[in-house]
Design brief:
With about 290 residues, the protein is of the alpha+beta class. The mean pLDDT is about 95. A 4-stranded parallel sheet has the order 2-1-3-4. A 4-stranded antiparallel sheet has the order 5-8-6-7, with helices on one face.
Amino acid sequence: MIVISEASDQLTPSSSARDIAASTEAARLAGCRLYYIPQDFDVCQNATNALCHVPEQARESPGIWIGYIPAPEKYEDVYRAALDKRIRLLNNPAEHLRAQEFDAAYSRLLGLTPKTCIIHGVEECAAAVASVGLPVFVKGAVQSRKARGWKACVAYTLAELEELTRILLDLKQRSRGRVVVRELVRLRHTRKSAEDFPIGREYRLFIYEGRVVGSGYYWEGDDPLKELSKAEQAAVESLAREAAARLEVPYITVDIGQKEDGDWIVIETGDAQFSGVSQIPLLKLWHQLSQLE
């Protein structure tokens, strides 16, 4: 397994930077071949230059990119530049977008995830309310604003939805011009974040070709609801595998949450190359990935 990593001492300290560093170190310990690229291509102009130090492989080899979520154009450029070196990232550009952008995934997840409406402007908010109802959970096509708390994600009125929509459309990296308006589903929880966001009973699963290669509690810290029984673990893995199969993305993360009534639902999906590692045992994950051919 060849790993292309953005890990660097120059990265701004953050949870994402810590995850990138930890995943890169785990990949190294698992025996993967590591090559580094800058996060910002301004220093090298393009993907071809970013990968100029990577040797062409004797035969086509699988590759994983560890880094921040890239713009679609950047992903495609790196994918093509890696192919020129006979390195094939596990997800092609179309698969990457299907996993990463919720509006691309939603039609395949019907029945597994809360009812959702995709909008492109404030003028579409009223129709979204008519379709989904109130209150609603609001996020960008790529990311939510959970770190800023409950009020940054939940609208109880049309006016609140319009305001959250304006904010997300301005945050182009999170929304990419689309806002996801979802039926508000309350998850089992015993605690809240410092920003008053309920820390639900959620789990992230890393899946490669239908096989769970890593899984763990989604949130940081300890929680009385963290541990799963064998039956619960089986239910969570079964639902995650079904979601992954529907999306037809080779390497994907699926987030699963438990509603207050005990049912399990799909929260969202992501390209596993750029997903936070939560409480997944990294050495176990990367040992399995290092065996791929």
